[in-house]
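step=predict obj=Ribosome-associated complex subunit SSZ1 n=536
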Amino acid sequence: MSKTIIGLSFGNTSSSVAIMKDGVLEVIANQDGDRAIPTMLSYAHGDEYYGAQAKQQLVRNPKNTVAFFRDFLANSYAKIDVSANHRSAHPVEDSEKLVAFKVVDGESEHTVSVNEIVVRYLKQLHTAANDYIGKEIDGSVIAVPTNFSEQQRKLVAELAEKAGLPALQVINEPTAALLAHVSRPDIDAHANKLFVVADFGGTRSDGAVIAYNGGIFTILATMHDLELGGRDLDEAIIEHLAKEFEKEYKVDPRKEERAMAKLAHEAELIKKTLSNSTTTQFGIESVASGFDFSGSLNRLRFEMVGRSAFTRIGDFVKHLVAKANVDVLDVDEVLLVGGTSWVPKVSSVVSGLFDSERTVIRSPNTDTKAIDPDELIARGAAIQASLVSNFDAEEIAESLQPVVTNGPHLAKPIGVKTAEGVTEILAINTLIPIRKTISIPAEGDVLIEIVEIEREIKVETVKPEPKAAGEDEESDWSDDEDEEYEVRSRVVKPGKTLAQLGITANGKADIVVTISKDLKMQVAARSGSEHVAGTV
């Protein structure tokens, strides 16, 4: 009898659950119809609410609404950042100097540890999954950030077990997202590509540069910014609304917690609406001092007030690529993950960092076939769950994440020298061991020369064409569009010679390069009945 194993994206802002059922991948909707379920719990009148119902309590019952708690796991109170919790239940220090929350549950006040909060929340997800699937869950594959410590990963597994979701594996979020992407039917599963996975969530940003070689993921670099996320865009809108309200009514809403909670709720709705349309209307009852507030906001104004956050998003991706010691011209695809990736300006800013003819940006705004960025991680975890569902515990324990390796990879590409320059055989960052065959035109007695490929980045300074008379010179983004800018291109040329082979060819030659685990390289060439080989 097959096991029912779910994939779980356990996020700091929202979580998702998915399952592979009869070869079809489904993202599970909870009782409220939500697939991206807010990672929140709220207590009111003796009842416990979770997800969207808990989020609704942020305006009228914020002190008993617990949010943004996942990252507090296994951390001491002294080390946590509580800035995201100012409009919800505030963390406190428990007797073990760990994180807890004080909530009024019914008639009494309780101090609830973050561990217990996680168990309660995962139980709610367990119930939702059971109701949707119609049978008991046997286990889960859970995705967490790459900077989670081993202690945090083990704790997540322990708490999931208590919630009735035994964790077969705790895997990395970026590789889960990428696994979902490369499993699309229109993607070549055997391709060799370099990916940037940029996950822009509600309270944090995470990224990874991953080399994908025929089903194997090699993580080259990771980066995290725990102070950059969709919340920064919300705060920019909140500040804009607060200024407009104060200008109109001469009352500062920043002085009232309830007023700011209402503005925060409306700001998130505005952000989501402007991700799909260019303008939106809003109306908020009794913001402060009894005044109602209504108006409109367009996408241009939103992009201007959020300019600082958008700049930081661009810088995050730029620094991530640099950390991997690769150039933006080396990147084949950028996969945008997380709810903030729905914002069109995020795609625009990231696109501006790469060569549009060389690099594909995968997001809802640039790719009509793109998977919902809120669902990518859960989908990848569900695919991984289907792969390991029939393994026993010992087999799974041997490899915590079979699809991922940090093994050796090529620091330089390898190619064959030709009259035109050089033809690549093995790309940079190719995972070792590897065997690759290519064919080249060849006639008569030829010398085949295997070389390292040297790559240079050519930078040209370009001055833009002057604007036509009467053309609108106002920019929605930059004040320096008339300044000179750089155009980058990649130049490859033969480098160090690794091997030479002489062969008599009859129109073409097949060249085989094999690199073993101990970094020994074997080179062979074939043409008809001719065959030569050697080891470097």
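step=describe
The longest strand covers residues 485-515.
step=end
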